[in-house]
Design brief:
By secondary structure, the protein is an alpha/beta fold. The chain has helices at about 10-25, 80-90, 95-105, 110-120, 185-195, 245-260, 270-280, 290-300, and strands at about 40-45, 55, 60-65, 135-145, 160-170, 175-180, 200-205, 220.
Amino acid sequence: MAGIQYPAFTDETAAREALEAVRWPDGPYCPHCGNLDQEKIAKGAGKAHRPGLYYCAACNGQFTVTVGTVMERSKIPLSKWLMAMHLMASSKKGMSAHQMHRMLGVTYKSAWFLCHRIREAMKDDNASPLGGEGKSVQADETYIGNSSKRAKHYKKGHSHKQQIVALIEPNGKARVVHVQTATKTSVRDILLKHADLASELHTDQSNLYTDVGGEFAAHKTVKHGQNARGGSGANYVGSEGQTTNAAENFFGIFKRGMVGTYHKCEAQHLQRYVTEFEFRHNTRSGLGVNDGERAALIAKGISGKRLTYRPTNGNRGSSAIH
């Protein structure tokens, strides 16, 4: 998936072939029964079959490249799906659904839902723990929302803001989690799940990390203080080189995107926006990934994921947008 003039962005046949090449590099497989035997898979025959339709002789099922993905049953053309993936992959601070709806020529409702499904495809469900022996992991938290004192329902204090915890490898990858409340217990759970205990943990002097820090190979803190812009007693880097600058840099990009691009986000959707910024951070050009490769990674991530307004079984759940 190269530049903006890529044929798959305007031609449906080229878009389908490009998606098949990314999702099925070794040939199509049946999403219904998992059949990989190419001798038992055939393209639909005859004039009446839909373009891109396959038939599986193992289970007598039919499928296309979108079956079993976030794109399943979507009426949006594949070319517009691929264009949207490229735009979201290459926009450092994100792209609003309003901008997407203008550029793709779809309704705002369709663009909003499409963006959320692409964010679902950005999730890395098999991510390994950060850090390891001889490595360090930076941990920090931030608070967003409820910041305008002129707002009708403004309330002072972190407890009235959305709370986000980030774990960052210096010059490496990130794992970022939206939490209901950042407490010692919730932060410990995040650290134990996403960071290797053989790592050296770098944090500020927040009490959130004092207990869990003892479970890591080492815990080093940096004193930020109230005058972090150079005032007395404030530091960005500790005496042994410890810092949380990588986490601060991530939060800088994230907040600029949320304020300047998306403007507002309800709490139930925030984790998907967090995942979007995490994905671009983990596939940034500094790690050798370009815009086209980043978009291809999104296309690979569509498999095995569904996101609907309501779950297909009629019950509300985590797979639905409410």
